[in-house]
Design a protein that fits this description.
Keywords: Hydrolase, Nuclease, Signal. With 266 residues, the chain is an alpha+beta fold. The protein contains 9 helices and 11 strands. It has helices spanning 3-19, 52-63, 71-81, 143-149, 178-194, 221-230, 235-248, 254-257, 261-265, and strands at 83-84, 87-92, 99-101, 112-116, 138-142, 153-154, 159-160, 168-169, 173-175, 205-206, 217-218. The termini are far apart.
């Protein structure tokens, strides 16, 4: 069909809809398509094909088998997991995308430190081996940006964050830049499946609140689900999942391998 005929058809369709009083359907986000991984017949074999609470329970059993590291060991682990693919001397910082020297880890201005994406205070698990040192939600982050994020829940809007272009914050929520939205969602939902209260740690769960304080919940689930759809797993995120699995913890973030499982559970 020629360009002229395509344009004519579009004009005719729009006019016809107006004449008969119809509204053309709005474009909506397409749910994440089902994926297949090399782990489906091995690591995930007891989860594939399930949905809802059955899927969540199966994944919890699978990913709960993991090795734990100390909080001090997290420093060197992040230098590997968050390595800049374009500069092996640097790490890529969450919320800003800035590439910074691995040697600049610490607590001073200009340094990067260890960001708990699931805030420590949401369940009071601190930095003890377990949720406090789980690499699947720990990321290298600029010290000042990390401080601005604090323990806020996740939502849209607010004022621009200095040092993290594209990120926004208000009194009780934080919105990461677009390139990190899906990463954040999948890290939060990993934590909600991994920590179910059947060990020494609290039962972590997502909800739709932005005032969770010290309870073991993190919001907003509706926004996190949108972010999972909006920002699919990147090569950086997939490599990170592999490194944590092969070199540190021996477990995987299932929502990086199967982002469609977010909707299947929630």
């Amino acid at each position: 069909m020629s360009v002229a005929r395509i344009r004519s058809w579009k004009v005719w369709a729009a006019l016809s809809a107006a004449v008969v009083g119809l509204t053309l359907p709005a474009v909506t986000a397409t749910p994440a398509a089902a994926t297949t991984t090399a782990y489906d017949t091995t690591y995930y074999k007891n989860a594939v094909g399930k949905t809802g609470t059955s899927l969540k329970s199966a994944l919890h059993t699978i990913i709960s088998s993991q090795s734990k590291i100390s909080y001090d060991a997290v420093w060197n682990a992040l230098k590997v997991t968050d390595q800049d693919p374009n500069n092996t001397n640097n790490v890529v910082l969450l919320y800003s995308g800035v590439s910074r020297s691995k040697s600049l880890n610490g607590g001073a201005v200009g340094n990067w430190n260890r960001e708990h994406v699931w805030a420590q205070s949401h369940g009071n698990f601190g930095t003890s081996a377990g949720p406090g040192t789980d690499l699947h939600h720990l990321r290298a982050c600029d010290v000042q940006v990390n401080s601005i994020r604090g323990n806020k829940d996740w939502d849209l809007g607010g004022s621009a964050v200095s040092g993290a272009s594209g990120s926004y914050t208000d009194s009780n929520s934080f919105e990461p830049r677009n390139a990190d939205k899906g990463d954040v969602a999948r890290m939060i939902l990993y934590m909600a499946v991994r920590y179910e209260g059947d060990d020494a740690w609290p039962d972590l769960e997502p909800n739709d609140s932005t005032s969770n304080g010290s309870v073991p919940w993190h919001g907003r689930l509706s926004i996190l689900k949108q972010w999972n759809e909006q920002d699919p797993p990147s090569a950086f995120e997939e490599r990170r999942n592999d490194v944590i699995y092969n070199s540190y913890q021996g477990n995987r973030n299932p929502f990086i391998d199967h982002p469609e499982w977010v909707e299947a559970i929630w």
